[in-house]
Amino acid sequence: MAVVRTVFLLRAKKFHAGRFNFLAIGLGFIFQTAFLSIRGHALGRCPLTNLFEVFIFLAWSVALIYMLVGPAYRLSLMGAFTAPLVVLLQGFALVAPIDTLHATKLPANAWLEFHASISLVAYGAFALACIAGVMYLVQERQLKTHQLGSIFYHLPPLTDLFAAITRLLWWGFALYTIGLVSGFFVGQPLPTIQVICAIGVWVLYAAILQGRHLRRLAPKRVAALCILGFSAALTLLWGITFTAQMNTP
Model confidence over 235-246: pLDDT tens digits? Predict the structure, then answer.
């Protein structure tokens, strides 16, 4: 609903920010939560047992972080940028043949499930930083080319957008660090390649934040790196070991 309304208004060149996108995403978030709850009760564990559930959980995380960010961003164009990403993630999960149920049910590992779930919530924060980065680059380009469309007047100021990017990066980095550390308490070794890639993502975001703190990276470059970083993080989803594939020793 949020995507269709935004596309319609943009095509009519009458886009205006309002509460509709926020309410639509909020309603979708309720349905997402209900689905994950039903699925989790059916499985008897956190619903992160296959790639289908991971993509749904990631879409839920994006919506969650969006609901938590400040009202100045929720009611701005950020909702119009967030909704397509959520639809894309969930649409892919529904269309792709990736909902493969495991034949055997293994005992739940609380640390492993915490590690997986908190890491995906961190992905939600990185996704919002990516979206804010896209908004920053769009506005920066419009200012540079002096071609100010109707969309320009509904974007937060560049300084506010960059502050949002920085805040989301810190939240995502903190959550991802917690998820990374908790992985060492699952009571069994995690796949080496998965650990190396996860540490690589952590180092990438640490470098972005360090460059931002030392003012060695221009805001435009930080915004671009947020897009690159989230794209790289998404590729790790294909190589993860699901919570249903690991047993407690």
Answer: 777 656 555 555
